[in-house]
User: Fold this.
Amino acid sequence: MPTRRHALALLLAAPSAGLIAAAWPRAAMAAEPEIFAVDGLAIRGTDPVAYFDGGGPVAGRPEDALMWRGATWLFANAANRARFEAEPERWAPSYGSYCAYAASLGYLAPTDPAAWTVHEGRLFINASLRARSLWSRDIPGNIAKGDANWPGILG
Assistant:
């Protein structure tokens, strides 16, 4: 479900963006959570470690859950949970599991676990396969822009 920040990003893309942005009450927008989660589950319940093994999205199991940075992370097995617990920054998706392409453009968007990329040891997830395709056109440039925008875009 879009938040005010998502709505603002869509409005700013409109031709009259300057007028809309000037009228938008910035103080009314609350900061977004550090980790994008649906029903409290990071990556919609997908095991983040499994992406690095080349298998892509693998559903996690509730019995292998871990709370980290305000979200519940699920893992396919206890070994993956232990790997994540030892080095969560290594395994967690960049930009708090928000869309990597949106982060490169300076806003937040939800993600689809099927729209993923591992690049130079980092996991990136996008809002859709289309967003991943656009992001993939310039991965190093989009990472540089996303890194520059993160975490300031949380609000």
The helical segments are 4-12, 17-23, 78-86, 88-91, 100-105, 129-136, 139-149. DSSP finds seven helices and six strands in the chain. The longest helix spans residues 139-149.
